[in-house]
Amino acid sequence: MYDQISSNKTKSVLLVGFFVLLVVAVGWAFGYVTDMGPAGLVLALGLSFFMAWGSYWYSDRIVLGMSHARPVNKQTEPYLVNTIEGLSIAAGIPVPKAYIIEDVAPNAFATGRNPENAAIAVTRGLLEKMNRLELEGVVAHELAHVKNYDTLVQTLAAVMAGTVVLLADWMLRAMWWGGGGRRNRDSDSGGAGGILMIVGLLLMVLAPLFAAIIQMAISRKREYLADANGALLTRYPQGLADALRKIASDPAPLRAANKATESMYIYNPLKDIKGGRGLNSLFDTHPPIEDRVRRLETMASAGGGA
Questions:
Q1: More confident residue, 303 or 63
Q2: Which of 19, 59, 40, 33 is closest to 210 using CA atoms?
Q3: Burial class (CB in 10 A: 0-12, 13-18, 19+), 2
Q4: pLDDT for res 71
Q5: What is the spatial distance between Cα 173 and Cα 54, in angstroms, rounded to a whole number?
Q6: DSSP class of residue 270?
Q7: Are 238 and 305 in contact (CB under 8 A)?
Q8: Percent with pLDDT over 70 in the chain
Q9: What is the rounded average pLDDT of the residues 193-207?
């Protein structure tokens, strides 16, 4: 279990680091292609900072509002609130606010910029279809996201991906409106200028694809990490494994979910039980459910369920 946690943390850090390098490379290419020079890189970093600032302060409210989640307390939903409270104390973090989504499909997500301003939202279907151990497994998974600052990492990844896409689009428009000025000058001068222009064009075309792949890879690694941390918190990996099976096999559609919020949920509500295969799996926001269950059951058989 501890090896799994350590491995996922390392891979997540490496992916974020690579993402930062991609943003810097696209910023350089943007400055070169548009004749802005170093100002293009400054613009890329400034745009990333501005988008991250807005997402840091307001993303939780936006996600909860889009999901039609309403706040609850001990008087209205004592079972849920007490479960969140008990596991939060065990995890050593502030108790997140509890929200309910009135939807029969079982699912849940966590949001918030830090543990002091976090929220956990679960669907009505999750409360009705999970037993106590399964509900604790799901809540522990979401608390792990909160404790690990996963929502902040996911926000950062989304902002960087958005920055890359915007800059690539601006480069394309700049070349179209500018009549290919830099391209023509580089082709006339030849040599290094032409090579750099080709590099810039390749980044313009491929960077958005790379950004999407990295963003989804970060999401999948954070899910594995939250599974491992959640199992460590409850000391019963089988509870979360059973919950994931129930959630994935439930036929009810989650009407509150959409493409903007799908990565937030413990299980992708817009995918089938097996997820993508081959190259398609690179764009999955969640790991295959059978792989997650297998890892959890391996933890349980190795002593994690004691």
A1: 63
A2: 19
A3: exposed
A4: 97
A5: 26
A6: T
A7: yes
A8: 80
A9: 68
Q: Summarize pLDDT for 4-34 with one digit per residue, the tens.
A: 556 656 766 776 777 778 778 877 777 777 7
Amino acid occupying residue 130: M
Length of the chain: 306
Contact at 8 Å (CB) between 263 and 270? no
For residue 114, which amino acid is it? N
| Residue 94 φ then ψ, to 5° | -60, 150
Residue 181, CA distances (Å) to 32, 34, 172, 240 in order: 11, 9, 13, 58
Alpha carbon distance 91, 64 (integer Å): 23
**Cα-flanking dihedrals φ and ψ of residue 119, to 5°?**
-145, 145
Amino acid identity of residue 250, one-letter, is: D
- Tokens 């590099």 correspond to 199
DSSP 275: -
pTM recorded for the entire structure:
0.77
Range of the domain at 164: 2-304
pLDDT tens for 36-89 read 777 777 877 787 777 777 777 887 888 899 899 999 999 999 999 999 999 999
- Cross-strand bridge partners of residue 101: 69, 123
Question: Which residues form the catalytic set?
Answer: 142
- Check if the beta carbon of residue 84 is closer than 8 Å to that of residue 95: yes
| Pair 69, 264: CB distance under 8 Å | no
CB 227 within 8 A of CB 142: no
When divided into structural domains, the chain yields a total of 1
Which residue's structure tokens are 């491929």? 206
Taking alpha carbons only, the member of 140, 102, 139, 108 closest to residue 121 is 108
Residue with the two structure tokens 């997500």: 109
Give residue 158's Cα distance to chain centre. 8
Tell me the C-alpha distance between 105 and 82, whole Å: 22
Confidence of residue 274 (pLDDT cuts 50, 70, 90): very low
Which pLDDT belongs to residue 222?
86
Beta strands in the chain (DSSP E): 69-72, 97-101, 108-111, 119-123
